[in-house]
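User: For my dataset I need records formatted as: sequence, then structure tokens, nothing else. Please produce one.
Assistant:
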Amino acid sequence: MRILIIGTGGTIASAKTEKGYKATLSVGEILEMAGIKGDGVEIEAKDILNLDSTLIQPEDWITIGKAVFESLNDYDGIVITHGTDTLAYTSSALSFMLRNVPIPVVLTGSMLPITEPNSDAPRNLKTALTFAMKGFPGIYVAFMDKIMLGTRVSKVHSLGLNAFQSINYPDIAYIKGEEVVIRHKPELPAGEPSFDPRIDPEVVHVRLTPGLSPEVFLAVAEKVHGIVLEGYGAGGIPYRGRNLLEAVSKVAREKPVVMTTQALYGGVDLTRYEVGRRALEAGVIPAGDMTKEATLVKLMYALGRSREVEEVRRIMEKNLAGELSSAF
């Protein structure tokens, strides 16, 4: 069995410097410090980036995706080490760009550098490697013994070790010793493996707050090709006082406006309240129960294929990689 570990940097690869932690270590050094030898499994390491994940850009998703796609036929599983801050964006991007992967592709990282005592890096690496060896095809995130679907994870804690949760979707599995205990096997589309890196990064995420100026929204919208509007609760747009709904309606005629929610769980249902129905009538596209990260990346993916609002709507409303429940 052959496993490839692709390094991209992050806390897991960091060491302390005069200016704070910085990604400096190679995957080989991380494996050595974690005490991971393979035990009969051939493990190969490949560094393609070494960045704090705050610095990750959409073009880096393409670099990572290309490295994965070119390796699919040569390995039985792939692990990607990555910083935690943008890991959920990368796992979503890979899930949309890489379709029908025939092996497990598992992203992981750590909240404490491998160089620090009691680092969670060895535990998370072991979790990822175990699922890469014994799991099933797809793109996943491994953290604190849990395996989660790549399009369903969000970082929910900035400091705690249990930093990721699967949102509106069950965990895929957990690791118990050397055993993979399956909790939920996702029904993912079948077909030939493919890699389509067309994305349009000219998307902005706007958080709805009391008093948000319609003029500010219009000024922001003018500079981009699509907008994710993070609303309250089940979704809606204010029209009393500052009439943001009028501004959104104007934009939505020409550019896709997708509404997600500030609530971590549940999702957007624009049919539930009058303010939501008005948003629907204005042309807003509901994100359903997708995570904020998956929503943003999927809009980039959709715009990479078409700038037509109705075609983008069709793509956003279709479940492509397990990111959207049929109930929505």
